[in-house]
Structures
1.
Amino acid sequence: MSLVKIHSHTAIGSEIYELTFVSPVDLQAVGCEPGQFLHIRVTDSFDFLLRRPLSLCKMDIEHNLVTVVYQVKGAGTKRLSEKQVGDVLDVLGPLGHGYPLHALDRAALLIGGGVGVPPLVELARQLQKAGKVVHTVVGFQSNQHAILISELAAYGAVTVVTNDGSLGRKGLVTDELTNDFCSSYDRYYACGPTPMLQAVQQILEKHKLPGYLSLEERMGCGIGICVGCVHKVSRDGQEMNVKTCKEGPVFAAQEVLFT
Amino acid sequence: MSLVKIHSHTAIGSEIYELTFVSPVDLQAVGCEPGQFLHIRVTDSFDFLLRRPLSLCKMDIEHNLVTVVYQVKGAGTKRLSEKQVGDVLDVLGPLGHGYPLHALDRAALLIGGGVGVPPLVELARQLQKAGKVVHTVVGFQSNQHAILISELAAYGAVTVVTNDGSLGRKGLVTDELTNDFCSSYDRYYACGPTPMLQAVQQILEKHKLPGYLSLEERMGCGIGICVGCVHKVSRDGQEMNVKTCKEGPVFAAQEVLFT
Amino acid sequence: MTGQENTANRELPYRAIRNVDLTVPFLDMNFKNPVMPASGCFSFGREMAALYDLNRLGAIVVKATTLDERQGNKTPRLAETAAGMLNSIGLQNPGVERVMSEELPYLTQFNQLPVIVNVAGTAIEDYVMVVQRLSDMDSITAIELNISCPNVKCGGIQFGTDPAMAQSMIRAIKEVARMPVIVKLSPNVTDIVQMAVACEEAGADALSLINTLIGMQIDVEHKRPLLANGVGGLSGPAVKPVAVRMVYEVTSAVSIPVIGMGGIMTGVDAIEFLMAGASAVQVGTANFVDPYACIRIIDELGAWCDAHGVRAVTELIGAAKA
Amino acid sequence: MTGQENTANRELPYRAIRNVDLTVPFLDMNFKNPVMPASGCFSFGREMAALYDLNRLGAIVVKATTLDERQGNKTPRLAETAAGMLNSIGLQNPGVERVMSEELPYLTQFNQLPVIVNVAGTAIEDYVMVVQRLSDMDSITAIELNISCPNVKCGGIQFGTDPAMAQSMIRAIKEVARMPVIVKLSPNVTDIVQMAVACEEAGADALSLINTLIGMQIDVEHKRPLLANGVGGLSGPAVKPVAVRMVYEVTSAVSIPVIGMGGIMTGVDAIEFLMAGASAVQVGTANFVDPYACIRIIDELGAWCDAHGVRAVTELIGAAKA
Ligand SMILES: Cc1cc2nc3c(=O)[nH]c(=O)nc-3n(C[C@H](O)[C@H](O)[C@H](O)COP(=O)(O)OP(=O)(O)OC[C@H]3O[C@@H](n4cnc5c(N)ncnc54)[C@H](O)[C@@H]3O)c2cc1C
Ligand SMILES: Cc1cc2nc3c(=O)[nH]c(=O)nc-3n(C[C@H](O)[C@H](O)[C@H](O)COP(=O)(O)OP(=O)(O)OC[C@H]3O[C@@H](n4cnc5c(N)ncnc54)[C@H](O)[C@@H]3O)c2cc1C
Ligand SMILES: Cc1cc2nc3c(=O)[nH]c(=O)nc-3n(C[C@H](O)[C@H](O)[C@H](O)COP(=O)(O)O)c2cc1C
Ligand SMILES: Cc1cc2nc3c(=O)[nH]c(=O)nc-3n(C[C@H](O)[C@H](O)[C@H](O)COP(=O)(O)O)c2cc1C
Ligand code: FES
Ligand code: FES
């Protein structure tokens, strides 16, 4: 747990903000995995007792800064959006297990939906740095909700779709996931709303592409002590509830069960 | 209920602040009684659900500003002390019944202890404006807690006592209330901690000086609907609990009962 | 001139939500909206009438009325807690005779305002005498039987936690009452459904819940309970989850209408109670925080319905049940 | 490398309060301070051991352990409420065998840490079998019988609200337990004192209270209860006044020691419980808000005593009683 200063805070879309603050850990010394999250108290008031999990989107190792990108969903993220540059933030993390990189992979397919896109930015950076080909498919509600496209484009090709066709092709990310298209990649990495993840998992299982899903469950502690955030997985033929904060939020796609 | 802007906010003693904000009522149009109070929410968080009552200390009719002076007692006043110039404050009032002026009086004795002194400033101003002689006796813990003396001195003589003798005479305000001294006044007006009020009432009853006491009880609503803030008075030979927020906080000294 | 009257000018603009029907049927009446102040949190309406037109309320519930005048408990009677407050008022009120001669006549000027009188006491006979006396007055819409006040020693609390005693009380009251009887339940029970069903069986026309939870705060500096009375009743946002749960459970078990309350601060809070099954809601503590709370909540309720395509607030009642 | 390990370096400076004796006698032991994490809010200690030295705690209470492995309830299992939260975990745990083989041995490395195992189940026989099994392990300081979990259907909740059933349970457990038995009480009862006295009579060595209040939150946008389970247990600052009241009442009626909990966030909160009569306290929800809550509270407790001239924390126990 650290009290850190807000470095910048700007609107980058419809009710979507990019928030940069001093890293609660020394980035140089410890390093972070893409897909890990920061667990943030939006105020010290008991009105918002629990922390809010937000994915690590970017790291600036030189200045020891981290960036999250979030959408105002409810009262807590609304309150967060009122924070000013220079204000102090109570941040825990980075927490959890992120996306693993595979040494032998040559090309990776990244799939993101809405505010599931942020963790893919740091992932794309690390993949590209490791010499992999990166192609990202991102889907948004509309033009106004489209975020982080230029950031992603710095690391590889980006395909954009929107629900209303106001940017890129009209449709869903899954429309892009043809067998032909997918066969060029060694692995996929997805983050987005649960229905999207479920559809992606189904399609890419058919295409026999292995991958990872970053799951979203309501979190209490974020560190594995409340057992509130579980998701069902199948391991050794056994169904079990595992903590997404501690064992996840990123899981191998083949073990994740949706019900 | 009004949302008003803070105009100035400064420390004027040990953990004592002077806070000036836009009046929630048009002072020109309605006028306020000295002894009335403002009922203030220190934050919109449910951590501090109830408002805090603070006495009207000064009014600036020309700029439509009011001033309160308060001491940090608990978490709520602490929170209030963190408010900045320009911040918005949720204020109800002025509420209650203040100190009545009596047309035929020539000289008034004002007695204040600690943060009971603030309402005497506006009272002294109005008394002096109405042509009365004003003498104020104020007691403080120490030099560091002494407040508003020069303000009071603008309207008449001021006698200061402190518990530790670090300013004025060492002792209690009641030490000053000799029969001789009191005989020069038509009436007294007191505000301060309950033990002080009780002692003042007892002594001045002996000296046959009529007067008023401003009572302090924990308040909920401040407008007479919760019946939380009562104090016992005797009226027509009957003891009864009356609401200090609505019928007070100022009461004729002879009707107030202490138990 | 005092401040109260002055603030009357600054009430919120009344947003007439044209597309939404806020009326709710209650017993054989129609309330113009489902929002009313809770007993003990609005006194007898006089102070609030200086702030806004009471006709805008769905109904009014006045302070607990007892047979004889009561002075209540010693002060401090109030304490602030996390997202809530404790009170130990102890039923201070002028007694039924003066309530009828001095307080209730004042409310008759609000010709569109149903008046519900909260009745409290120590023994069944007290309650019966109060209700008998109130039955002489035509302007009273309903009685709310407070069998659950936690702040009177050897008082009503027994009735509120023992189903058999509650039934005896209700049967006795129903014999003398000329108006509908709403029974107000205590949350300080093991089985709220059992209490509710017992009250319905005994003839209650409606139920209201929850009264306050019993709580205590310690003044650590003075090493003693902060309230002079030791314990007090907990209310405010802190208790809302308990209240919503009880309303949900009770409305699944009885067929008489239920008025929900406990921590309602906003229109959305009120909607939680309606969706949980309440036919109407009461607003207590919120009035102390924001004197305009009731009319603000009515406005917010209308605006929410409007934004969500809800044509009639009655559509929301029980909507959260599977 | 993940973040948890990293944060271990940033624990609060341990302020040794030299002038204050924080030890409290509990049963036939001495705890080095009166602060322990509450069951279900610290898992089995492994995650927390990455943050600070568990030897600093007065004791540890681990997650509810049942006979067989349990997967718990569907998600969402958590909801935030005003100054509180609802949970409906539903006793997810690996079952007593794996708790004994995989979890408890880990804790033996903390040689100054008394370990209390919270036990839950559905029928008396379950509880008996779990306690029998745990009695084989010398490293367990005490059992905390969770007869009050509101999150298991047709589960332990019955025992927690019926004095006679609680007594049968306790008598059966006492026959097999080789360690002291603490009984954890539910606040969802009409008469907490009656429950406490019944437990004492049946042989409970100590009591702990309160477990969570039963609550519900409605997701108004989706018109359904937010928790998949419908209802959940309310904890956090919101419930503190209810908890303090119950501790005050219970400690006035029984002579066995009582562990107080419910909404403790700070040292002063802990002092409220001690002054109300508790011999020790547990900290639950606060661990989620601030992972260092327990050791911060220990420090704050010491600092408060120091500033107030209190030489031994035992002086505070029951200090608020007349
Ligand atoms: C591992 C993880 C990473 C995330 N990363 C991002 C991100 O990078 N950008 C982003 O915009 N959003 C992200 N989210 C979702 C984000 O945490 C929620 O939108 C946010 O907590 C909502 O808070 P609120 O106060 O606005 O909503 P409210 O509904 O008022 O919140 C009430 C409570 O519910 C929880 N909650 C509500 N919705 C969600 C949800 N969808 N998922 C989890 N908890 C929820 C809150 O944390 C809080 O405890 C992430 C979620 C998880 C689990
Ligand atoms: C009519 C009136 C006028 C007042 N005028 C002034 C003034 O001009 N300057 C000043 O410094 N103080 C004044 N006070 C006292 C002031 O209201 C309290 O010191 C303040 O409310 C304490 O709040 P807190 O949050 O710091 O304390 P906390 O103890 O944290 O407050 C908790 C609750 O207790 C109430 N409370 C605590 N102490 C008191 C108290 N002594 N009197 C009334 N309520 C209390 C608070 O309002 C709040 O609801 C006045 C009180 C009254 C009744
Ligand atoms: C100061 C105060 C006084 C109350 N007096 C009464 C009363 O006289 N009769 C009654 O039935 N309930 C009384 N109540 C309980 C409220 O009517 C209501 O049931 C409770 O406060 C929960 O609602 P809330 O959280 O909106 O306040 C009182 C509550 C408060 C806070
Ligand atoms: C997420 C969560 C899980 C809990 N699990 C258990 C449990 O397994 N066994 C138990 O006896 N109590 C359990 N409790 C109750 C706590 O131990 C404690 O009694 C309650 O939360 C009140 O304390 P608090 O307000 O400090 O959290 C749980 C509470 C929470 C919030
Ligand atoms: S959020 Fe508490 S265990 Fe995952
Ligand atoms: S503060 Fe509510 S009646 Fe006086």
2.
Amino acid sequence: MIGFYYFLSLILVVVSLYYFIVARSYVKRLISVNILGSGVFLFFVATAKNTTMENPDPVPHALVLTGIVVAVSATAIAVALILYLNKEER
Amino acid sequence: MLDFALGIMLLSSALVSLHSKDLMKSGVFFLIFGFLSGLIWVRLEAFDVALVEIILGSAITGFLIFKLVKGSKRRALRVSAFTKAWAGLVSLLFFLFMLFYLPTIERQDRVGRLVYENLHKSGVESAVNAVLLNFRGYDTLLEVGVITLAIFGLLALELKREAYHWDNPLLQSFSKLLLPFIVFFSLYITYLGTFSVGGAFQGGALLAGGLVFFALAKQSLPLKKSLILLFMATGLGFFSLVGLFYALLGYGFLTYPLKLSTLTLIFIELSIWISTAFLLYTAYKGKL
Amino acid sequence: MMDILYGFLLFLLVLNLLLGFVRVLKGPELVDSMMASLLLGTGGAALLLALFKMTKEVLYINLALGFALLAGVVGVVFAIIYLRDPKNGV
Amino acid sequence: MLILALFYTLLWLFIAGFEIKALFFGLLVVPFTLLTHRLLNLYPPSINPSALLRFFFYFLLQSFLSGLDVARRVLSPKLLVEPGFVVYSLNTNKQAVKFLLSMTINLTPGTLSVEIKENTILIHTLDRSSYNEENLRYMESLIDRIFL
Amino acid sequence: MERLAVLSLLLSSFFVSLFISFLKEERVFLRSLVNAIAAFYKLFVVAYLLWSVYRGGVFEIRYSMVPFADFYLTVDPLALLFVSLSSFLWLITTIYAIGYLEGAPNRRRFFVFFNLAVTSTMGIALAGNMFTFFLFYELLTLSTYPLVVHRGTQKALRAGGIYLVYTILGGSLFMLCLVLLYMFVGDSTFHTGGNPSLRAWVLENPLWGKLLFYGFFFAMAVKAAVFPLHQWLTRAMVAPAPVSALLHAVAVVKAGAFGIIRLVYELYGVELVQSMELWQPLAYLTAFTILFGSFMAVFQEELKKRLAYSTMSHLSYIILGILLPGQLSTMGALLHLVNHGIMKITLFMCLGNYAEKYGVHKFKELDGVGKKMPLTTIAFTVASLGLIGTPMTVGYLTKKYLEAGAKAAGEEWAIYVFYISSILSVFYLMPIVFKALFGRSREDKEKKGLEVSPLMLIPPLITAFLTLLFGILPPEAISPLKWVQYIVNKAYGGY
Amino acid sequence: MVFEVLSIMLMFIGAFFLLAGSVGLLRLGDSYSRLHALTKADVLGFGFIVLSCMLSTSLFSNWLKLFLIWLLVISYSALVGYALANRKKNA
Amino acid sequence: MPIDLGYLVALPLLASLLSLIPSLRVYTAFIFSLLSFLLSLYSFIYTLMGDIPLYQWIGGWVAPLGIGFRLDGLSGFFLLMTGIIGFFVALYSFSFFKVEYQRQGKVFWFFFFFLWAGLNAFFLSEDLFNLYVVLEVLSLSALVLVALPGHRKAIKASLNYLFLSILASMFYLLGVAMLYANYGVLSMSLLSEKLAGTHAFTYALFPIIVALAIKSALLPFHFWLPPAHSSTVAPASALLSSLVVKPPAYLMLRLWLEVLPKDKSLEYLSIVLSLMGALAILVGSYYAIRQKTIKMLLAYSTVAQMGYLFLMAPLYYHGESFREALLQAFALQVFSHALAKASMFLSSGNAIYVARRDDLSYMPGFAHSHPLTFFALFFSGATLIGLPLSAGFVAKFLFLGLSIRLGFIFQGSIMLFGSLLASLYVYPIWRESFSSHPTKFYDNPIPQLMELSAFFLGFLSFSSGIVTFLLLQGIVRG
């Protein structure tokens, strides 16, 4: 099962990487970067499950939590900047 | 079975979100992606992550993305075949690379066991929060720093933004009615953090959601701007002050004595709760 | 026995999500896609509660609480932001 | 205010349990919540409990019926639907009643409130032939009795 | 105490430079005062050092600056020769510059870099190994660039650009050679008679040794303006007179020559250079430079350019003297290092006076200047005679030693080179004197008092006097000659 | 045991209604009608599931929470239904 | 225990918050920048005297569980660098925001101190994941600093920067996750023990290296840097160009020299990096030479100068026996470039302040009208070229020596050629500032503090070469 999640995360990362490069609009780029992040988080969380203990390893969970918060902050500021640029364009 | 279904849904929503020419559709599917990944975290027993993903990763990010999409022109720009080709090549290479990598991962105990062994010394009963607040509290301090930084940065640039709202009485009364509940439950989730799934970020983000809802119904919070600013800075300020305080006392930076750790952590959680809430709220609003 | 029952139950719930998802994918209007938030809100919460039933872990209820609290907000926010401007509607 | 305080305290106690930590946290939570009420100037209206209860059960019934109704229509081989709009004019002019009613309309068989005007509600019905205004009238009166 | 003396030699002008950079432009008096005090102080320290080194004192500062290389300052007789020359001339030039630049803009910047240049000259003199030498050698480039372009005219800027191109390319070559040296040998300390570890290595790898030698030589030949690398020198004459005087008579060009002395005598060692016949092609090149410089000088209309070509040829005297084997030629070279400095500085200061007073820059404008400015013209004439090599002047001594050295080395062709050059120098120097003295008289109004301000007049007179004095002093007296003898005896007695 | 069986049955009923809602979402012709299906059937299905969960737990706090979840879900369903319908109408 | 290293992070953080209070801003800025500078100085001096490497486990939780601070020679040295530049930029900013950009001045300090805290945290951190968070702190505060002027160009530059830096962060995180999946630890010191004899880490290395290359603007990813560094206000440019691009390179060196074991694949990687570095030097210098505006010139020169750090990657791999010398060369290259670039950007701020323009050709006669600023440009330019006495020279000398000793002639020659190119792009600045044509000089005075701080930075960058033995003692000690 873990293999499936690893694979899933891999696909997410690769696909969003492709779209990140291809994307011509900031919005798409932002979305693809966020999805890429989710792929990475998925990888991390799957790692947490890949253990001999009965409970998953809490450390990756905490790290992913941190990662999500960081990603949200970056997204927030990106959104503000893009909106500003769009408004200027009009 | 469930995993596969969820996985396929996740993947397809990601693809649609990435590929769709219509930015709005991308936005919607991004939100769906967030929800689904929340469910996936649940399947992976990462409950804390799930909660954060649902509240922050999907809801708050979703709000932001909506707003962004709404403010952007929706025109499809043509991509040259060359770009596609090299992008495809890069991704393919990366894919193959990772494919070779994946088998090298082995099932093993990592730091997890150590966390459970030291849990009783941390002042928190939930393992994830113990890591977050105590074992790797420094990370969390910086994380609070990052989010504070981002939002203050956004304010500092003074980027004027359009406000979206719906001046609807029903909505207004509903959001108003809901707010105390949300405050209550966000605090409850924060409280849960000390022994179960939950925590300050989750609680704060929940409250932020409520506040955004409140603001969207064309109402303004009866709080002074300076007070909101103070709330926003509370998390970082309090956390670093605590760190400094213990350093000055001689315990060491961010080192809590065993007896006081629970109390300290509760106050830290509260401060993070309130600042997260107002930070994310401001992140959505774009101004004070 | 119970496992099969629960398995079937989960199957039903996932089927529910999948069916809804098909509609969301198909569109044709944005409003239809937006119903996803509603669908995922209730469907997801139901899934969580079913898992609670299976495992008797209280934390699923808390998760469902969070889900329920946010799903609705998301739907309304959707409606407000998206359909604000007549040009961008439908 | 007192009622609210009592309400939240009890809610907290029941939800969080009776540990020391929970009590301590509760001491912070309840004032916070009350403060929110205070800030929003939000106080519970005086209500008639027995009417509320009656409404509640009636609502449950309606909700059940509506669910059944929809499921029946949807699952029948021929879709038994004939969508259309109707306008329902309100008798009352209490704001709260109007809102609560328009919400409940969504959960009663075959109706969906689309637009709330001064004292009319635009309703979308799933099946025009089975639209039943009396039902709504009755509900309105029930709700009207809740708020004193 | 010893370390302090060495350091203060180096740092006195450096601190002056730093101090001045914070002074306001208007604080003329304070600036001049500080400059003068530092110059006198330095002279005092030099005197002290001369005395103690003569009595066998050892002065050195050494610490490991980077993992491979040491920062090493040492005071040996050769260093002292150069130090005393440049600190004396510095004093002279400082006085002159204060007068010359009176009322001119940007004097603060000028003096900052002027002092920095002197610091680097001191460093070059005191460097105890090639690494330290290189540090100050490049610092000299850096600090003289602003002086060259001081005026900021397009011409000056172009000259500065060419100067930088040459010196930085030379510097890169230098650095490359230095790094190679450190990587292969690991030591670049100057030893009397040659660095032993280098010697061992060169004997093992003659090809590399040869390459390295030529690399170093050409890196320094850039500054010494040996034939293909001389372009910058003639153009750099756009700088203000004191700059040309000090830097192009002493600091920059002599630094190159001084570096070659160090290279030949103390890094490779005379024996190695001779046994490997490293010197011969270079000697021919320098001989050609002598002739070329003198020849070109004859046809220069611009006076400063004329002197610049003359500098070029005279520097090659020094280098040829170094390269030719034998004690006598070495003595000639070292003497010429000093003598040429004294004479050239006189000439430049005199030209500066002409230019300042009557705006004379070209040969044809010289008419009758000599009668109006008799003292300046006397100084000029004395120095010119010295450069030509007339008896009773220091120039004669130099030529005598150089010719004797050439004869001793068995390289008679070099003697003819010196002769021809002397004849050519008559042709390019004497017309100036004649034109100044006997040209049509100028119609400018007579001004009262001295011909130029005393600050500008006294320095050339002093140096002109010294030209004569050192020329007629007996060999026993305290003079550069004696010091040079002392050095050469030590150098050749070393092995 | 009786409770257990009952609760599982309830859960299946709930799942059935949810499924019905989704089927409705798929089959119905216009957006308004689809909203009907979602709001009504889903809410009912969810109600059953909540009920079933209530039966299988004995903690009062859980009951309370489940009730609150239910309350939230129905009110949100109603509100979102209204909001979407309204926005579509005025779009 | 000498002093709690946490102060180095917590104090600037606190200062950033306090600086938001308008009435306290100036005092906060002054007191805390002085305090942070003294703290950095103290830690540097500690590395010269005390026993290093010094580990401090935050919260008392030892490595696999908790996070550690690690103070050793290299980090102490970089702390000093941060302290010096931070302090002088602070001094500069006092005046700068008084006379210009008043609105931005209100918020500048917040991000300034945040950046400072982030840099201190980066140099001290010992944990890979913690470094991820710190990288985010750095890039977000840098991003805001880029966007600070608020005009379209700046915003666009900052957006491009933001996207690349998020991408890079994600890649970095992926690499960290991969390492954690394979080895189960995040602390560098533990990782180095676990890595020995294994090969799986080479996979994780790839995303990490890509991320670090993006963040430090190595060649194919360099395009974000010039617009970002050139479009903002002078103090911010100075901070960005001198400090913000350095940490990734530092981390790479750390990984290379202290964490990763010898592995064949690393050798290939190092060659690739080296080629990219060489290209960065050539391309960066080429574009720098072609620029017509001073800030763009300086920004491209940063690209070129960062190239040196990567050019020498094969040395990091092969130069085990010269580890100390390598560390010193690296440290000095970073140090000299940082100081010089900060000074140059500050001086360019002065130039723009008087000339009101960014074009190189609009700063004529600068050496005549504002000598102190010119001195700053002059000394720092000399440092960039790597002329002797400057720390840049010592670094280049060491690099060149090592590359010859280890047989990397190509790297050595690129190095030498690079400094020639550097002189080509520094020279126009000097020439223009000397030019007296057209004869119009800018007579309006520049505030004293602005001139002095630029001058001191330039002077320090130039003269520090002579005391390198003192500066590098910490690195020698370990």
